[in-house]
Design goal:
CATH class of chain A: Mainly Alpha
Number of domains of chain A: 1
CATH topology of chain A: Arc Repressor Mutant, subunit A
CATH superfamily of chain A: Winged helix-like DNA-binding domain superfamily/Winged helix DNA-binding domain
Structural class of chain A: alpha+beta
Strand content of chain A: 15-25%
Largest interface: A-B, 42 and 43 residues
Distance between the termini of chain A: 41 Å
Oligomer: homodimer
Number of helices of chain A: 5
Chain lengths: 115, 115
DNA sequence: AGGCATACTTACATTTTTGTTCGTTACTTA
DNA sequence: TAAGTAACGAACAAAAATGTAAGTATGCCT
């Protein structure tokens, strides 16, 4: 696997590419929440621990641009926005699930409590 | 999944924990190379694109401390060191493989060339 | 008129991660 | 004697990711 360019950025392997799309602190938590229902901005904001508006809207915008989620704006007052997962996002949820299970195994392996 | 502490650090979900152990730019490339044979330090250094001594020895040390790899020093001159994967590391390789396949799929999906 | 609500954006500060350069040990070879 | 080699470590610099604080629009409610 040689290096390759994408989005004006250099990558060295497929994992790096995948994590450039769904990595970082908040994208997986967002996709995970959207996996079985629509969520609005404010609900995501209060559900995801410690997330700031900056990181939430930045993450949502990138996931949207990359086609992992879709967005619907309802012209109400105050405005309402709903985010949904797309087909591409559903594929991401599969690997997120695998990573999550691996993480749970590792936690057991390291003797970390979980309730 | 509530927050939890490990290694004096706060985590919010199992994925975050897993990636604290095998994430970053170089740990997966290292584990990937060790999956079917022993490698010595200098071979890893020249095989992994752009890696510096600092990052290589830092990554190796952490993987070693966390039990993903083992190390054998041969008292020759100049010294020779060999790194091997452990059982815990082999489990990591499984999820790395999944992530890699997902990355390849994503690349196709985004129309990125691969030879 | 003033405050509240939602869904954001912008500027700036701080933290985390990674890169660069240099030094070390102990012996061997030119 | 000087230079080379393998496998690092330490100090410092730069870059990338994240955090903080504040501001925006529209319109309702009091």
């Amino acid at each position: 696997m040689p290096d390759f360019f994408a989005d004006k950025h250099l990558f060295h392997n497929p994992v790096e590419f995948a994590l450039s799309k769904i990595g970082g602190s908040y994208k997986m938590p967002i996709l995970w929440r959207l996996k079985d229902k629509a969520w609005r901005y404010s609900a995501l904001a209060s559900s995801i621990p410690h997330i700031s508006d900056r990181m939430l809207s930045k993450s949502l915008k990138e996931l949207l641009n990359d086609g992992f989620i879709s967005k619907e704006i309802f012209p109400e007052v105050p405005p309402r926005t709903e985010y949904n997962i797309t087909e591409r996002g559903k594929k991401a949820v599969i690997i997120i699930t695998a990573l999550r299970n691996y993480g749970l195994d590792l936690m057991k392996d390291f003797g970390i409590a979980q309730e």
